[in-house]
Structures
1.
Amino acid sequence: MVYGQTEVTHDLMDARKQSGALSIYEADDVQPHDFYTDKPRITFVKDGETVELECDYIAGCDGYHGVARQSVPADKIKTFERIYPFGWLGILSRTPPVDHELIYANHENGFALCSQRNAMLSRYYVQVSLDDKIEDWSDDRFWGELKTRLPEHVADRLVTGPSIEKSIAPLRSFVAEPMTFGRLFLVGDAAHIVPPTGAKGLNLAASDVSTLYRILTKVYKEGRADLTAKYSEIALRRIWKAERFSWWMTSMLHKFSDDAFGKRMQLAELEYYTTSDAGLRNIAENYVGLPYEPIE
């Protein structure tokens, strides 16, 4: 089943609206305060008015560039990061997907990926240098390079058309530890980034939410405030396993250099993991997402 991230977002927003819960959009100057006390609060500006929100707990679900992680004192947090020496040039086109499943390609020119949004909306990527610019890549050049990197029988059925969106995204692995700071919890991209090769970004964010939700449910229903201290430990175990899988997929499928030995190792790994029952089970287990841990 392919469930596009934008569709997940739409469905979650619709569900929240139907529940009657309040959502505030386009707020400015959002800042968390006093999260090391038992009375944390958030201030923000909406329609020119400063608003203060008193909280029991704060979930920082505001992404890699958000204020939640940046509000934590530097001596209270440690970060781990790997920047990859290439990016993904991606386009969106109103064309039927080349296949009903994702296609990952390892080619001497670099990585390629075919994915889909719906029956008439396709998303395609090719690995490019971080020095490349969008203006360097016309639609014709992109389609030509994508076809080159795909198997001939796939390239022959690729439907091309004008791009409606085009961007170059750098790849990085990033983790912040811990994820709990008093009554502030980092959730999703605020705490970790994975290369998109492993398709683990939304999966990890959802697992963070599940862990925190199950903990806070017990806090409010059973008075188990002691469980909040376990959030970071539980979440990070899963995060590092997903970071490993995404790093491994990236290492196996992308061109890092012209080293002939390294290329042979990539091909040997690909052959093992796509022809061995053990290899296929390994990929399937990690790609779908590891089981959630109990919170106690």
2.
Amino acid sequence: MEHEPVIGIEVHTELKTRTKMFCDCLNDPDEKHPNVNICPICLGHPGTLPVPNKEAVEKVILVGMALHAEIPAYSQFDRKNYFYPDLPKGYQISQYEHPLVKGGYLEFKLADGSERHIRVTRVHLEEDTGRLAHGTSDMGHGTSTVDFNRAGIPLMELVTEPDIRSAEEARSFGEELQLLIRYLGVSDADMEKGEMRVEANVSLRPRGAKEFGTKVEVKNINSFKFVEKAIAYEVKRQADVLASGKKVVQETRGWDESRGQTFSQRLKEGATDYRYFPEPDIPPLVLDQAWLGSIGARLTELPGAKRKRFTDEYKLDEKTVELFIGDADLAEYFEQVVSEMTEWIQSMGDRVERDKAIKLAANYLTVDFQKMRKETAAPVSETLITPENFAELMAMIYEDKISSAAAKQVLDHMFRTGGDPSEIIREKNLSQESSPESLQSIVAEVLASHEDIVAEYKKGKTNAIQALIGAAMKASRGKANPAVLRTLIEKSIQ
């Protein structure tokens, strides 16, 4: 019998706020010293009272609005009761029946170009737990320590409907959600730092059936690559269990990335196991419509809309668009460069193809400029190249006033020291030579010294001309116009 996967995912995201969820302790994910940012409130000492973090509430609502969700006027915090060593209170303040966000959806494309529409069940706000560290003492005994710096940090949990049908879809959903969260500025959502954590609920059912199969939760997944691998493994494991005539057990499983497989951790808890009840120390939240309106006003252009605009307005290919969508700062810089190029494009009239000029700028930004950024780890905001100077360089390249080889030298100089491209070209004598009269002597010398290559070209090996152009470029110290060289070489041989 053929089965189909039914997958829903839960995404936990640590919010980027100044303080923790219910106290004034700093929310500092980079703090290396354990148990520094703690107080009686986030440790749950008797007699302390939690006060909700307004900034965290606003950020969850902002995510809900970006997901086209319902923001109920009434919301409530609840106690989720369970014991774990890194949970200082013995319970977690969370939300159950009345979350901040209900419903919504996220749309994205898969690698094959097909579009997916995944519904969101809810987005709620809770506090994070502490962090356990396991090791070995000098005596060889196992040790466990707990750092409560993370305990009480605002944690947003998003739960999807079971609309996902493959491991690839789950990964793509997570990546698009991470992009959305970063665009909204609510979190850095760095999975390697634990700022975003994914859990998958996986089940199989006979293809075409309406009832769901037995659900298994997979936890401890710290990258989107492993999200895809863990789900793919779990789908195959459950298929093998069903094929052998056995039943899938409802349980929680971990992901072992070194072995590439899931492993059983415990039987899956249900909502009744957590004994939810309204948090007695925090009154319900009644959300003012004017306040919600002010939050909605913060919504900026989101990845989906930006993706469509960059494709339609700039006529860029899909790969280039995705590079810009994944780096909002680079995309903003690109648009500043295009704005600076606009006057030049208009002044040149028919001599410049707008789309071709814009694509030229995009290519230099996404290849050469990005390569230099990676070498120096420099953010776009700190680049010494102004959009105006970058645009000027692009115009000179387009008009063949400088060769591509020389352009790379100029760009490198601008990146490291700043400066006007025209002055750099003049100082370094990098202007491109396009005069046939001045280049004819170089061509004659190259043809005379490479008679074997000329002979190959005459026999029909037309690609041999590239070697001749390369030799001529070297003789001109990279200043010759390759297109003019090609014309002169072809005419001279003929």
3.
Amino acid sequence: MNNQVLDHNGNEIEIEAFHPGEFLLEEIETREILKKDIAKSLEILPNHLSEIFSGKRNISARLAVRLEKILGISSHYWLGLQMEYDLFVAKQLEAHA
């Protein structure tokens, strides 16, 4: 499976990955859920949730399962976003090594 994105001329467009915390923040804000309430439901400290939003903490498998239970968004989706982001960062680091 090829993950390339091409423009109308067939040239590859580089898409910058985003940390899944950005999507989580957007999802919570769209649903108008208080951040302190989601942190409590996830059984994490509010500052840990803020660190996820800012990309300083990753979404673990356990957290992904809790997100699925609370938001109804597949744990596989959350882990997939995290994996894609991690691979993007690793490739960027390798390219500049």
